[in-house]
Design a protein that fits this description.
Helix content is about 10%, strand content about 20%. The chain has about 210 residues and is α/β, with parallel strands linked by helices. It folds into two domains: about 110 residues, no CATH class; about 90 residues, Alpha-Beta Horseshoe (Leucine-rich repeat, LRR (right-handed beta-alpha superhelix)), CATH 3.80.10.10. The strands form two sheets. A nine-stranded parallel β-sheet has the order 3-4-5-6-7-8-9-10-11, with no helix packed on it. Strands 1-2 form a two-stranded antiparallel ribbon. Helix 3 links the parallel strand 6 and strand 7. The protein starts with a helix and ends with a strand. About 25% of the residues are buried.
Length: about 210
Amino acid sequence: MMSLYLLLLNTLQKYLNQYDFLSLMLTCKKHYNKLYLKKIKIEKTKDLFFLNYNYHKNKLEKLFCVNVNITQNMILNLNLKSLVLLNCKNYITLNHMPALQKLNCYGSNINQNSINGVNLTELYIENNEYITDLSFMSNLKVLNCSGTNLSQKGLKNLKLYKLYMRNCKNITNINSIKSLKVLDFTNSSLKKKGFINLNLERIYYL
C-alpha cells in the first residue's frame, strides 16, 4: 500500500513539474483511494484554477495567496483553518468559514463586513484601514493591528496573549486585557498608564 501511495505522489509531482506549478506547496494524503490537497500556495495567476477543483475542496485546510486576486466564487465552498492573503485586491467575505482560525490579510481588501461573525485565534491586519471592531472575537489570542484604525471599543472583551499595535493612534488603554503577556506599542498613542495594570512578560517599544 505504501509503495502505491509513493507512486501516486511521484506521478502527481511529475504532472505539476511538467506544467510548471512549482509555486504550489502541497501536502498530499490518501483518503478513500483518492489524493487530495490540504495546503496550496499560489503566487501566479495561472495557478488559480486549482481552487475550482471540487475533489479537494472539502479537504483543503490552508491557503496562501500572494499578489493574485482570488474571487468569492473561488472560495465559496471552502472551510479553511488558515488563510493568508497578501496584496489580494478583490473584495471577499469569509463569514462562510466557521473553521477559520488564522487570517493574515496584509495589503488586501478585507473589511469589517468580510470578517463579521468569524471567531479567529490569530489575526494579522497590519495597515488595514477598513477594520475597526474585533470585540466579537472571543477566541482571539494573537493580534497584529499595527497601522490600523482599530478603535478602543474594538478591543473590548478580547482575551489576547500577544498584541502588536505599532503606529496605532486610536488605542490609549488596554488595561482590560488581563491575559496579555506580549506587547509591542512602538510609535503608538499608548502610554505607560494605559497598560500599568497588566502583568506583561515582554514589551517592545522604540
